TrEMBL record:
Protein name (database record): Leucine-binding protein domain-containing protein
PROSITE patterns: PROKAR_LIPOPROTEIN (PS51257)
Family: Belongs to the leucine-binding protein family.
UniProt keyword annotations, A-Z: Signal
Leucine-binding protein domain mapped to chain residues: 63-391
Signal peptide positions (record): 1-24
């Protein structure tokens, strides 16, 4: 997919932080929810992006139930994913006739990132008899997937944080984070930026090490970067100076930051110590809060996102902004929110004409797996053939948009979507 892109416009509003009870279940036909987020919240206030939603085509009758688990409690949460999904459901129920004329109903359960809580949530969702699971953002997914597998439920879309959902036999996932974004950025560094020597600062916990040592570093080497210095940073470290000194001491062409919580301190320290080379990092390094905390150190940082910038000015991005403004104006406009919105729009696009009786697991999966280059809302076309990402059979699309921090704003670094392709090879 190619699209006419534009610079990201700063969007502002506060998100109310609300304490969520772990494993608190609920349901909605697209109702809003709130919670603390790892990204700054935004609305499209003052940005002329509104589109006409068209004539109402309200769904009615018996609702079609989908289950959603989303990380809402703990030090890092992603309420924007659920908020975007609920807003999209409200839109398709009011204007696109839901599925087969019936309203979509989301039954939700708030997780805390632990597999045990996600397993409890999954069993509670199972009691609601969903036809399928709509993917959310849940690092505890390894606890839930066995429940979905036991019930033989399809799993559609969402933010794939772990290999478990990325390889669930009944899953179709439209956008990839953790793997495809870091892999694409690594290849972009080698092939487009001409980097030959790099240093990678990554959080030395399980997930950070898996990404840093299992995705970024080997992909860089496969793409032609001849020297890569790895710098692990404890997730509890309050002082990043040693890690920054180690990275700079290698005299790299590029420093890649894969330490979301420590990003502002790392970037600020790099600037203070006079680093003049290229910068790359992960999406959380580019939130308004992180950019501000970096004290100018984030300027020039390039990162990868699986969806178009929300203010790209395309019909699809403008539709998302209009729907969020109408139904969930305090939603954080980050890549994860876009993936949540995308998941609902793709679900309705493919299943919208299905009768309730046809929503069996086999027929749902066949609808997404038949054909190739299927339209992906705000993203690159997807093909669910199990071959798009090595070691992740459920991922249907590995293409990313490259963006760059420019002052306090975000610009598109490259118009066309980019993928690591065969340069990414799983390490195990």
């Amino acid at each position: 997919m190619s699209a006419k892109l534009g610079p990201k416009v700063a969007l502002a509003a506060g998100m109310a932080a609300v304490a969520m009870t772990a494993a608190a279940c609920g349901s909605s036909s697209g109702g809003s929810s709130s919670g603390s987020s790892s990204s700054s919240a935004s609305t499209n206030a003052g940005v002329n992006t509104s589109v006409d939603l068209g004539a109402a085509n309200a769904a009615s009758g018996t609702p079609i139930v989908f289950g959603v688990l989303n990380l809402q409690s703990g030090p890092v949460t992603f309420p924007e994913v659920l908020q975007a999904e609920q807003a999209a459901v409200k839109y398709v129920n009011a204007y696109k006739g839901g599925i087969g004329g019936h309203p979509i109903k989301l039954v939700t359960c708030a997780t805390d990132g632990t597999p045990a809580t996600s397993a409890r949530c999954a069993n509670q969702i199972a009691d609601q008899k969903p036809v399928a699971i709509l993917g959310g953002a849940d690092t505890g997914a390894p606890g839930a997937i066995p429940v979905w597998q036991r019930l033989d439920l399809a799993y559609i879309g969402g933010v794939p944080f772990t290999p478990v959902e990325q390889n669930y036999k009944n899953a179709v996932i439209f956008s990839s984070v953790s793997t495809s974004d870091n892999a694409a950025a690594s290849v972009y560094a080698a092939k487009k930026l001409g980097v030959k020597k790099a240093a990678v600062i990554y959080t030395s916990d399980t997930q950070g090490t898996a990404t840093g040592e299992g995705v970024i570093i080997p992909t860089m080497k496969n793409a032609g970067i001849t020297s890569v210095t790895k710098v692990g940073l404890s997730p509890t470290a309050s002082d990043v100076s040693s890690a920054v000194a180690s990275a700079m001491g290698a005299s790299p062409d590029l420093i890649y930051v894969d330490a979301p919580a420590a990003c502002p301190n790392i970037l600020s320290s790099l600037k203070q110590l006079g680093y003049k080379g290229k910068l790359m990092g992960v999406d959380p390094c580019t939130s308004p809060k992180a950019i501000k905390g970096a004290n100018g150190g984030a300027d020039g940082l390039i990162f990868a996102s699986p969806t178009l910038d929300p203010t790209a000015g395309t019909d699809e991005t403008n539709l998302m902004l209009t729907v969020l403004k109408k139904y969930a104006p305090d939603t954080a406009l980050d890549s994860l929110a876009s993936i949540g919105f995308q998941s609902v729009m793709n679900l309705q696009s493919v299943l919208g004409k299905s009768a309730p009786a046809d929503l069996t697991t086999d027929k749902i999966l066949a609808a997404f797996r038949t054909g190739s280059a299927m339209a992906n809302f705000m993203g690159h076309d997807y093909t669910c053939d199990g071959k798009q990402l090595a070691g992740a059979t459920a991922v249907c699309n590995t293409y990313e948009q490259m963006r760059e921090v420019k002052g306090s704003n975000i610009a598109v670094a490259a118009k066309d979507f980019f993928t690591a392709g065969s340069y990414y090879k799983p390490t195990s």
